Amino acid sequence: MPSTLDLIPLDSWLPAAATSPLVIAGPCSAESEEQVMETAAALAAIPQVKVFRSGIWKPRTRPGAFEGVGIKGLKWLQKAKEQTGLPVTVEVANPQHVQEALDHGIDILWIGARTVVNPFSVQEIGEAIGGRDIPVMVKNPLNPDLNTWMGAIERLNQSGLKRLVAIHRGFSFFNRTPYRNAPMWEIPIELMRRCPGLPVLADPSHICGSRDLIQATVQKALDLEMHGVMIETHINPARALTDRNQQVTPEQLKEILSKLILRRKTGSIEFANKLEELRSEIDKLDEELIDILARRMKVVEEIGAYKKANRITILQLKRWSQLTKDRIEAGVRLGLSREFILKLLESVHEEGIQRQIDVMNRDDA
Ligand code: PEP
Ligand code: MN
Questions:
Q1: Does 187 score more than 90 pLDDT?
Q2: How buried is residue 25: exposed, middle or buried, by Cβ count under 10 Å (0-12/13-18/19+)?
Q3: How far does residue 51's CA lie from ligand 1's centre (Å)?
C-alpha cells in the first residue's frame, strides 16, 4: 500500500544535500574528545561530507562490550560542530536520549536498527521529540520487514515529524554472505516506490562489515538512485572500540568518494528516444512472456484434469528432474545463467503444482 507521508523536502532543510549525493561520515562511536575532534576536522576538509555522525549510546549485541561514552560525548559533538560548522547527528534509543540530544543542540537524530523493530520505542521517541521538528533518520529494522520500517516512518510522521530520512543498513541474516548484513536491495527499492519524496540513504559500513566492500556498495546505492550514504570513518580504525573492520580513515573516505561515478538520471533527446525504443521492445517481449506463461498454465491444468481422471499423483519427480536438466542446458546455450533458469523453473513449477492441486480438489459434480 503506498504511503502518504507529509514531508518537508530534504534540500529545503539541508541545503547542502541539494548537490547530491549527501555524505554523512564520522566514527561508529565517540571514544575520546581528541578522536572526535580530529576525525571531525579531517572530515570537514572533504567537501562532499555534509554531516558529522557519531554514536554515544551504543546498542551492543552482547553485554560487556563498549557501550558508548554517554552524555559527555554530546559536549564533544557540540564542540566539533562549533569548530567545523558541520551539523551533527547521534543515535537515540529512548526519550532520555532524545532530551539530552535536544538539550545539547544536536541537529539530526537517528533511530537504530534494534530500536526500529519496536513500535512502542518508536512511538515514545516520536512523542519525546514532541512538536520540535528536528530531522530524524530511521534505519531499517534488523529483520527484512518493509512494513515495520514504513510503520516507524509513518508513526514519526504522525507525531508531527516532517523531516524524515530512511537509512538502509542491511538485514540480519542467518546464512553467511560476503556482507555483515544482507543488503536485499529490493526492500529499500520498494520503500522508495511506496514513499515517493522520502529520501533514502545507504549505510554501506553496516551492510558490508568490512571496508574492502564499501566502494562497490556506495556505487551500487547511488546507481539505484539513493540520495546518499552514511559511512563510518575513524581517525585510526585499527584501534576503534567498535566496528573496527568496517571503518575507514578520512583519507580512505576521500578516495572512495573521488572514485565514484555519478550517473545522471536522464539524458539527451537522442538518449531518451533510443531508451524509449528499447523499452517498448521490452514491453512487447514481456507481453509475450506473460501470454506464454498463461498458456503454459492452461496446459498444466489440462494435465491435472487428466491425472485426476486416471487417479495419478501430481508430482512426477523423474519428469521434473529431466525437464529441469534439459531446460537449464537449453538456457545456458542461449547465454542465461543456470541459477536464473533454475529459479524461474522452480517458480513456474510451484505455480503449476498449485494449479493442479486446485484441479484435484475441485468438486466436479
Ligand atoms: C551505528 O550506526 O553505529 C549503528 C549501531 O547502526 P545500526 O543501528 O544500523 O546497527
Ligand atoms: Mn557501527
A1: yes
A2: buried
A3: 16
